[in-house]
Amino acid sequence: MKKFLIILIMACTLSSQAQNAKITVLKQFLSDLINFDSIAFNEEQPIISISQMAHDNAAEIIKITRENIKLALIEAKSFKHCLIICEHHTLIRIVDNEDCNLSNLWGTCMPLSRAYIQRKGALSEKKDYLKNLIGRPDSKKRTMYLFN
């Protein structure tokens, strides 16, 4: 019984450390966009908290669809920062607007981007063209937040 309790305590401690590491990585990824000083994070799904902060601080918000993504990407070029959140699991920042790859499904050239994707609690970083990070056009919620 004693061994079981020790293992349980260690597992809880490691889980807590992993959650804190995830939040630290996301804070660094977005440090020039959002002030995190007085924010309480949803530790299980921090992207939900970030989505709310982005909504409260963005100069402009665009719901991305296949029909408007081309114009949204053009609009994003006139802002200092662009953050795209897909559902509650993916954060994307455009790295290079000039380096883009044509997407037949989305009907426009998609810029090189960097993302953090949360699956089954784990956070992974990916650098790829936007089309490969946001997936195929469908009913998923994709929101672009633009910051000055």
Poorly predicted runs: 8-19
Overall 3D shape: globular
Strand segment count = 6
Order of helices and strands: HHEHEEEEHE
In percent, how helical is the residue content? 25-40%
Mean pLDDT, to the nearest integer, reads 84
Instruction: Provide the gyration radius in Å.
Output: 17 Å
The overall number of domains is: 1
Secondary structure category: alpha+beta
User: Between the first and last Cα atoms, what is the distance in angstroms?
Assistant: 57 Å
Largest sheet: 6 strands, antiparallel
- Indicate the proportion of strand residues: 25-35%
Number of helices: 4
Question: Strand arrangement, largest sheet?
Answer: 1-6-2-3-4-5
Describe the structure.
The chain is 36% helix and 34% strand. The protein contains 4 helices and 6 strands. The protein has one domain. About 8% of the residues have low confidence. It starts with a helix and ends with a strand. Strands 1-6-2-3-4-5 form a 6-stranded antiparallel β-sheet, with helices on both faces. With 148 residues, it is an alpha+beta fold.
